[in-house]
Specification:
Largest sheet: 8 strands, mixed
Low-confidence stretches: none
Number of helices: 11
Helix content: 40-55%
Oligomer: single chain
CATH class: Alpha Beta
CATH superfamily: Vaccinia Virus protein VP39
Length: about 350
Amino acid sequence: MASPMNGGDGTHSYSKNSTLQRCGLSAVEDAIKEAVMQNVETDKLLCGSTRFAIADLGCSVGPNTFHAVETIIEAVQHKSSTNNLEFQVLFNDQIGNDFNTLFASLPQERNYFAAAVAGSFYGRLFPSSSIHIAYSSGALHWLSKLPEGLKVKDSPAWNAGRIHYSGASDAVVKAYAEQLEEDLENFLRCRAQEIVGGGMIVILVGGVSHANVQHRSTVLFTFVEAILIDMVKEGVLAQEVVDSFNIPIVYACINDVRRIVEKNGCFEIVKMEMVEPVDIATAETNVVMHLRAAMEGTLIDHFGEEITEQVLVRAMRLPTHMMVDAAHGGGIFALLKRK
């Protein structure tokens, strides 16, 4: 399982290096508001209660999560016929997430009660029929675990010399795809139990339009892979240490996501489309800093701190055109309504 994003609020923290993810939200912010106002009937959802529960699944440490939940709350308030709603926001992430930083940076002027729920969103997190809107951005492309075949040296899916499925053998691609399908099925099964009838899931996740298309962000993985291979050639790293490392990320094809949702049968697809993030000015070190904030813990878990630092220092040499490509890799935007 991948490590959480870098905590704290320092130079290498996720809170300081997550503007690309914020751009993804900005690209669909109006669509989220419109979907909530058109599809969420608060009177029917609440059945006389005034508590409205919103869960952010994979919240990390902020500040993006605060902006997202405020966007949802604003839309619900605009649609609601009552002025006395009490909003409860449940911030979810892995047990190792830096919830201390998250709660220390909560907006002082906020109109919701906040709570943390630690654990994997590939399992149950909340009581039955207790969540009205679940939101997940930039999280579902992380797998719950590496496919088993990638861990066994004699397996057809042993990914020697590579750290991802991009450019890998058919067996490796298949292993990643099967793990993704299992994870998404578990995610939907659990949310179907937790979300009230008529409630919604809002998903924004890195993805591709067709199965044979590589997501632009994989260029970063290719670059890190090349760095690791150079370190093997220099005698800094053993080949088998690199061979046994794989990044637990899959950029799903939109048609596969649609098929898995339809197979689950508990959700109506209100909207599912490809989106491109808003263009931003990309400083030369910006994308590498984002990479560090997101993946440093995962690299340290496998290679240790000293090797990871060397990898990230070398990654600062990433060519500008590769950074621009990686920064503008699109995603899948999905709005699902509980039947």
